[in-house]
Write a structure and sequence with these properties.
Blueprint lengths: L2 H6 L17 H9 L8 E5 L5 H8 L3 E6 L2 H13 L9 E5 L12 E7 L10 H11 E11 L17 H8 L4 E8 L14 E7 L2
Parallel strand pairs: 1-2, 1-4, 2-3, 4-5
Antiparallel strand pairs: 5-7, 6-7
The structure holds S-adenosylmethionine (SAM).
S-adenosylmethionine binds next to β2.
Length: 209
């Protein structure tokens, strides 16, 4: 997949087109509303952030949030979206980097929270083990990986992206890398983006020390 081309072709990927959902994941906002995730003052990270809606949501709740994308056009779109959103001081904590996830360096001590939505499923399946190893490398011991597992139920032979996934695939990838399963729950229809209902699970994984 040529992601830069996906972002830049035909005048550029607009809000609401293809995978761009025009808003933060409702699952993430619901989790943050629940108070069940310590977010204030944390270092949060969103790989494959696209236009950065989830980065902004994490920054609004008090994190210093870094979004990373391999496409320079995506990063430019994210910065423009942030700068147009009149976020005040929150904007200074919504940061973007144009880099490859697999070679990115974590800040001193590692990230506290990583949010992965439509990132693992965007990668060719042969990169999945490296995805898990990179997560273990960049998340601090005791830190949390939050995965919105999508698309569940898609035939793995159907190709992608998005490539089909299951909660068990995440378990098989993350357990050998030292992640403990905190919870895996089906996402209620009301919290999914349009056309993604009944295809999503929320997984929470703690990196053991
Ligand atoms: C399916 S899109 C999802 C974007 C965003 N999470 C969203 O929900 O709107 C996947 C994103 O991952 C980025 N990407 C793909 N491979 C990457 C890599 N190796 N490192 C960093 N970003 C990557 C793509 O450019 C693309 O923006």
């Amino acid at each position: 997949m040529n992601w830069e081309n996906m972002w830049s072709a035909n005048g550029g990927l607009q809000q609401g087109q293809a995978f761009d959902a025009s808003q933060a994941s409702k699952v993430l906002t619901n989790l943050l509303d629940s108070g069940d995730l310590e977010i204030q003052g944390t270092k949060a990270f969103v790989p494959g952030c696209g236009r950065g809606y989830d980065v902004i949501e994490l920054a609004k709740r008090g994190a210093t949030a870094t979004g990373l994308d391999i496409s320079s056009t995506a990063v430019k779109a994210a910065e423009e979206y942030r700068d147009g959103a009149k976020l005040g001081e929150v904007a200074s904590r919504a940061l973007y980097r144009c880099e490859d996830f697999f070679t990115t360096e974590a800040p001193q001590g590692g990230y506290d929270i990583v949010y992965d939505y439509t990132f693992l499923c965007a990668l060719p399946p042969e990169l999945r083990e490296e995805w898990a190893k990179t997560m273990a490398r960049i998340i601090r011991p005791g830190g949390e990986l939050i995965t919105l597992i999508f698309p569940v139920g898609k035939d793995p032979k159907a190709g992608g992206p998005p490539f089909g996934v299951t909660p068990d695939i995440y378990r098989e990838l993350l357990t050998p890398q030292g992640f403990e399963e905190v919870s895996v729950e089906k996402v209620p229809e009301s919290l999914s983006h349009r056309d993604r209902e009944n295809k999503e699970f929320l997984g929470r994984w703690k990196r053991s020390s």
